[in-house]
Every structure is written in C-alpha cells, then in structure tokens.
Amino acid sequence: MPNFRPRPGGASSVDNALRLLELIGERQALRVSDAAELLAVAPSTAHRLLHSLRARGFVLQDKPNGAYRPGPVLNEIGLAAIGRIDIRRVAHPMLEQLREWTQETASLSLLEGRNVRFVDCVESPRSVRVGNRTGVVLPANCTAAGKAILAALPSSELARRYADGELEARTNSSVADWAVLEAELAEIRECGYAVNRGEGEAGVSAVATALRDLTDAPLASIAVVVPTGRMPGDEIADVLVPPLLRAQEQIQESLRAQL
After folding, report:
1. What are the φ/ψ torsions at residue 6 (nearest 5 degrees)?
2. Backbone φ, ψ for residue 108 (5° rounding)
3. Given the DSSP bridges, would you call strands 194-197 and 137-139 parallel, antiparallel or unpaired?
4. What is the pLDDT of residue 8?
5. In sequence order, what DSSP letters do the residues of 40-93 get, joined into one string?
C-alpha cells in the first residue's frame, strides 16, 4: 500500500491530486473528509482538488455530496494500457478453449459509445453455427456482450451515455424500454452474466460476461454465441455459464499479470 503521510514542507497541488488518484484507484470510493485526513490538508482544499478532478472526468460522484469514484478518463487510461498489451492476443487462446468447452462460437467485444464491436471470434466446429462476427457493430443494449459491459459501468457513466434514455431496437425481442433495461442490468450484476435471445439479430442468441481491470472497471466482454434453436432454457446456468466464467477468470488473471 502506498505511504500517504505528508512530506516535509508540504506537497504541491499536483502531487496531492496524483495522490488522490492513487487513493481513489485503491479504495474505489473516497469522501472529502477522508481525502483531507489522508492528505493532511483542509477539507476545502480536498474538495477543490476533487472538484477539479471531477471536472476533467478523472473521478465522478454518484450523487451530490457523495463519495468520489474512478471516472471515465481513468477507465480510458486503463483501456489504453490494455491496448498496448493487446487484449485480443491475451484473450484469443481462451476463446479457442471456450469454443472447445462449449462447441459453440466464442467472441470478444469492446464497448464504443452505445455500441459494441466484436473484435475477435472463433467459430464453432458444428455445421450449423453462428459465423465469425469480427468487425460487426451492434447496439450494446441488443447484445449479451454489450449488456455485460453496461451492467459493469458506474451508474453515473451509464446515465451519461444514455442521457436521453433512448434505446435502439433491432428485432421484436430487443429491449427498447429504459426501465426494462435497468432492471435487466441489475439482474446481470447479481448473477455475473448477460443473456441475449434474438435481440440483436433474429436467430442468434448468446451469453456473455465482462472482463475487468485492476480497478474493477469493465474493459471488454467475452460471449458464447449460438443459434437460437440451441440456446438452453432454464438450464443455461448449468450448460454455458460455468465454462464462460472459467474463461473470464483465466483471461483476467493474464491481463492483470501483464498490467
């Protein structure tokens, strides 16, 4: 754990701001009073620093006078680091393993605004299968891959992306109502995976889970994509979810080791 005792002669505003970012990254939530105590500064100074960091997107608040949490800029910095590692290179062997475990197509996706882009894919060996989806872009709310990432975002970041509450519908099964999506995202947070049954494309269904970085922020998602006719019903948690979560754990271990 970093040593946050004040330095002789005090610290500059820049140094204190950087130390605040370290604290927020480590604790995931920090109140003004705690920041002031840890930095050995006045509460007004801590508030000013946190306000400046929030204005730049480095931190955010879920509600007025609430605790400060890692903001979207910190997540983007994390994504840049992951980009240098090349998440596709790290995840691809496990996508192949996931394909072997399930005998279905496995994919890797990134969130882009309100959309999700499939950046890697390995096809099922079965004659009837979902084909390679690399490069395909779909509304995040219409895919398991997208919903898994949306469910992992802070509520304030989710509200920023969907400030107008409007959702694009691709099929008759798409979730096009904001309240319905919010309820589904809450369920995803509870169970750890998302499900899509023909919501993005007719005849294509999937189950997905988010990949997270060292601060628990979502980086990407992996999914098992199947023809809707082969999508398990109530037994989905027994058939597709265990190998999916096993792959998630192994990919995250590899990513965190390299970070």
Report:
1. -60, 145
2. -125, 135
3. unpaired
4. 41
5. TS-HHHHHHHHHHHHHTTSEEESSTT--EEE-HHHHHHHHHHHHHH-HHHHHHH
Six-digit token pair at 9?
A: 């002669």
Q: Could you tell me which residues are beta bridge partners of residue 221?
A: 109, 210
Closest by CA to 35, choosing from 19, 11, 54, is 19
CB 178 within 8 A of CB 162: yes
| Residue whose tokens read 């490069």 | 135
Give 45-75 pLDDT, tens digit per residue.
Answer: 888 888 888 887 778 876 777 888 877 666 6
Encoded amino acid at 92, one letter = H
Kindly state the tokens that stand for 148.
């898994």
- Residue owning tokens 């694009």: 168
pTM of model > 0.90: no
Q: From its phi and psi, is residue 248 left (phi > 0), alpha (psi between -120 and 50) or beta?
A: alpha
Count the neighbouring beta carbons within 10 Å of the beta carbon of residue 158.
Answer: 16
- Give me the residues paired with residue 209 across strands: 222
Return the biggest CA–CA distance within the chain.
71
Chain position carrying tokens 């309820």: 183
Q: What is the pLDDT of residues 111-159, one digit of tens each?
A: 988 999 999 999 999 999 999 989 899 999 999 999 999 999 988 888 8
